[in-house]
Amino acid sequence: MKKLSVIALVGVGLLAASCNKGKSADTAATATEQKVAESKGEVLPVDVATSVVNWKAFHKGGMAPRWGTLSVKSGDLSTEGGQLTAGNFVIDMNSIKVDPASVTEKDKKPADLEAHLKNPDFFDTAKNPTSDFKITSVTDLKDAPKDAVAGANKTVSGNLTLSGKTVNVTFPAKVDVTENSAAVNAKFTVNRADWGIKFGTSEADPAEWMISKDIEITVDVKAKK
């Protein structure tokens, strides 16, 4: 019986490894906090009504995914000569929503997960009610990775602050700039443990090891005159 249990655990481990290879968004490169890009040209306020951050999280091995949204509270994008030069946006962490379609278990409720994500196990929104992203550089992207957002044409780097900690992340993005507007759309994956959000990441604890460290983030930020 003991031998059978060991074999079963090995099988689960192999399944988890194979499922993790199937993530749909590239893992963002990370570094220490960098100098924020200087705002040049015209500064356009972010349209908070049409901007949104989508998130998707998994149990380890890609099982039982959960997904939802976060509201953009404020921000701006700077453009000069038809190019994005700088920008930032603030996320309202208390706005976090769990899509009911992602919670299929009869004994689970989206509202309960929302409350858990807001408590100190995860984002501790009472202490850190907002998160923010500040662009540090924007460069041309010649060959977009296959898992990048459709139409990706730039590489964007920026300081992402979550739960009071700041880490620089780099990812491919689709950047559109017109005379009266600017938009940034991107999809990438981060390891929440990089921001000290470690609930459920200890594989030594059988009750917790099934929670993945990966969070898939989709950014859709629009700014206009």
From TrEMBL:
PROSITE patterns membership: PROKAR_LIPOPROTEIN (PS51257)
Domain (Lipid/polyisoprenoid-binding YceI-like): residue spans on this chain: 43-224
Pfam families: YceI
Protein name as catalogued: YceI family protein
